[in-house]
Design brief:
The complex is a heterodimer. Chain A is an alpha/beta fold. Chain A is built from ten helices and 14 strands. Chain B is globular. The chains are: A alpha/beta, B alpha/beta.
């Protein structure tokens, strides 16, 4: 059995750390060698870093690419004919989107990994599903990260009810019909964190009573918009539990550049690293590794990206490693917290800062 | 066009002076009252206890001294009679806090009445200069009050358009995008325009001369001031270093730790800059098989290139990021000396060597070759443009009958 197979065979949060590291290192070595062979810009970058493939003995020793590179470089390790889909990440409005080239096997791996991770949290059964988004998210030419999320998670549901109309306002009749039909047994809710919050705010304002106590919510996409409104994870969970009886809410952390191998939060709110991924926290001064509990820049690794060199990425997010194997939820492996985006480097440029003031 | 200054905040001068500028008579270049004003400004700034907190403020005060001005005046004592063009409208950049003061000085020295749009960011040293200038113009120099207004206004106010239509010369700092936007507003048919677009700069060090330098810490300090002081984002801040001579390895090993030591104690930088620098390195390396990252830390990042390229200069993130190459001659600078190249700072390279380089290769750029430490020092010839001559006009007076020389 190959190292990668081992990572696929075992439960995603069941491997002992040393065993996981051994298999994961082998899988990373294979991926690095393959991308190095097939993606010339990646090969040039490794060369410029002086990376010696034979020297890497642990996951943290493999080079990382800043995630922003996927916005500006065409990073693809398969011939154009093998690209099944190009995912574009929306990012912040007005910014250049990332372009991620997926071939069939990579897309398939993303689906399987996501299924393994998510079912560890919600069980193997497909549940009736309320999608807190609008049908038009799946239409339109571009395959956005939001669409990828909705489409990816939809496979865990039985049927699919849209909670929002195309005007982004709750479809109250559809929601109450859904609850009437399925609300008596476990059901699944999925949506982006900010949209979920807006949705429940609107339900609260509707004046009706809503019962979500059999629901399991999976939400992601970050807290930035809510943080601007002074709503943190604690307030979010409290509000859903007290106002709607919705006590099972799992945040997840992921990115279009590593779709599938997401990090999901357990009941304690800890984000967990699965067998498909690894995570490191690095210091800004020299990218050395932070101690457990020390805040730094998040690096994420995944064994899924076979068609593009996205298996080891430096994010623009701040985070902290909380521990390994010690979470009371019983899942093995590392667990961590995301603390938000790095504050943008506001250097004064000859052009970029000032141009916006003239019109 | 009607001037609506309701949204404007004047830090120097007032709305009445601004409104009168189109009719204000120009002055002769280097008029004695203007030189007096700058000497008084220099004294006022130097008398402030906090001048030492801002190296750029001290440099401005020094620049304004009468002796320095007299020296600058010399090339213009050529018997030609000149007057200012009239009203000059300056759009100051957002990246160099005191640039507005030098632009204003050039406009005044050339003999114009000046309207200066200040950037929205309230730099403390800019506020100090404006306060000192306002005090002088409200007191002993009230005769010059019609000649200077420094104001801040929101883009919606329409003032950029209105002042463009009124002025006789427009000076745009701030880079390509600002130039593009401001150019949408027409000037009078005879108005002159000077645009300072995005540029880059480089540095050349002769390794033998460097190693023979008696005070290499001072040279490193000068280099630090040229680069890190403005986050290495001023057009004049070198992005690349070309090492000449056979002892380049030794010289580099001696030089960079000295620069890094200064940055380690003085340069304050955000964590996101570490990511931005690594990303820039990757973008450069992706297209350049021979590139090499030379540093482990992120405070000072050095990238060795087989040859300097415009693409690498363009991708520069600022904040202490240096492209490097070693070569036998100045010719290695040529690829980055296109029209985007502004300044070449240097140590140990002779003027004749630069002259020979310019004559041989005739590059479109490289407007100023100055010693390390003087990259940001403002000169009345900037970006290859003689500001005094461009902002004034010559009046030719030919005799109709034979006149006795007096």
């Amino acid at each position: 059995m190959s190292a990668a197979d081992r990572l696929w065979e075992d439960p995603p949060f069941g491997l002992a750390p040393d065993e996981k590291e051994k298999c994961f290192t082998e899988a990373l070595a294979d991926l690095t060698a393959s991308h190095r062979r097939r993606c010339p810009p990646y090969r040039n970058i490794l060369g410029a870093l002086g990376f010696d493939p034979a020297s890497a003995r642990a996951p943290e020793e493999f080079p990382f690419l800043p995630v922003g590179l996927f916005k500006t470089l065409e990073l693809c390790s398969v011939p154009p004919g093998e690209v099944a889909r190009v995912v574009t990440s929306s990012g912040t409005s007005g910014q250049v989107p990332s372009k991620i080239y997926l071939d069939g096997p990579t897309a398939d791996g993303q689906r399987r990994a996501l299924a393994a991770i998510v079912s560890d949290f919600i069980g193997p059964d497909r549940l009736p599903m309320l999608v807190i988004d609008c049908p038009s998210v799946l239409r339109g030419g571009r395959f956005t990260a939001r669409a990828a999320g909705v489409a990816g998670f939809a496979s865990f549901g039985r049927g699919r009810t849209w909670a929002l109309g195309d005007d982004m306002r709750p479809d109250l009749d559809a929601v109450s019909a859904f609850l009437e039909t399925y609300g008596g047994k476990p059901f699944l809710l999925f949506g982006f964190t900010f949209l979920v919050w807006q949705f429940f705010e609107a339900l609260a304002a509707s004046g009706r009573a809503w019962d979500f106590q059999n629901g399991v919510l999976i939400h992601g996409g970050g807290w930035k918009t809510l943080a601007d409104r002074a709503v943190g994870p604690g307030e979010f969970r409290r509000r859903l539990a007290e106002g709607f009886g919705l006590r099972r809410a799992h945040d997840y952390y992921g990115m279009a550049e590593q779709t599938g191998s997401i990090f999901m939060a357990c009941e304690r709110g800890h984000l967990h690293v699965s067998a498909f991924s690894d995570l490191f926290v690095r210091r800004a001064s020299d990218f050395s590794l932070c101690e457990t509990g020390e805040e730094g820049i998040l690096q994420v690794q995944s064994i899924l990206p076979e068609s593009y060199p996205g298996h080891s990425l430096l994010t623009e997010d701040r985070g902290v490693l909380l521990g390994e194997d010690g979470c009371p939820c019983g899942r093995r492996g590392k667990y961590f917290a995301v603390l938000g985006r790095l504050k943008a480097a506001e250097l004064r440029g000859c052009s970029d800062t000032y141009a916006a003031e003239h019109g | 066009m009607q001037l609506n200054t309701a949204d404007a905040a004047f830090l120097v001068g007032d709305a009445a002076a601004l409104a009168a500028m189109p009719g204000t008579p120009p002055l002769e270049p280097f008029s004695p009252r203007v030189l007096d004003l700058f000497d008084a400004l220099s004294k006022a700034l130097l008398s402030r206890p906090d001048v030492r907190r801002f190296p750029d403020l001290a440099a401005l005060a020094f620049w304004c001294r009468r002796a320095a001005m007299e020296e600058r005046r010399k090339p213009y004592l050529d018997g030609e009679f000149r007057l200012g063009r009239g009203m000059a409208f300056h759009i100051a950049p957002g990246n160099v806090p005191l640039n507005f003061a030098y632009s204003l000085a050039a406009g005044l020295l050339a003999g114009n009445a000046n309207a200066v749009r200040l950037p929205s960011e309230p730099f403390p040293q800019a506020a100090l200069v404006c306060a000192a200038l306002e005090e002088l113009l409200a007191g002993a120099f009230s005769d010059l009050r019609p000649y200077a207004a420094c104001l801040r206004y929101p883009r919606e106010s329409g003032l950029t358009e209105a002042l463009s239509a009124l002025c006789d010369a427009r000076i745009i700092w701030g880079g390509d995008e600002t130039v593009r936007r401001v150019r949408a507003f027409p000037l009078k048919p005879r108005a002159a325009e000077i645009c300072f677009a995005d540029r880059w700069s480089a540095c050349v060090i002769d390794s033998g001369a460097y190693l023979a330098h008696a005070d290499r810490d001072a040279l490193a300090r000068d280099f630090y001031n040229d680069t890190y002081l403005n986050d290495q984002r001023s057009c004049a801040a070198p992005r690349a270093v070309l090492w000449l001579g056979e002892r380049e390895g030794e010289a580099r090993a001696d030089f960079w730790p000295r620069v890094e030591a200064i940055a380690a104690t003085e340069y304050d930088w955000p964590a996101a800059l570490a990511v931005a620098k690594r990303e820039a390195f990757c973008r450069i390396a992706a297209d350049c098989p021979g590139a090499r990252l030379l540093t482990r830390g992120n405070l000072l990042v050095r990238v060795e290139l087989p040859a300097l390229t415009p693409a690498a200069m363009e991708l520069h993130p600022g904040g202490g990021f240096f492209l490097e190459t070693a070569a036998a001659s100045l010719g290695a600078l040529l690829p980055v000396c296109g029209e985007k190249c502004q300044t070449v700072t240097h140590y140990g390279v002779k003027r004749e060597a630069f002259h020979a380089f310019l004559q041989t290769h005739r590059p479109r750029g490289a407007d100023r070759m100055v010693p390390i430490g003087r990259a940001l020092e403002f000169s009345l010839t900037w970006d290859g443009v003689d500001l005094i001559r461009r902002l004034s006009r010559a009046a030719v007076c030919e005799a109709s009958v034979k006149e006795d020389p007096t």
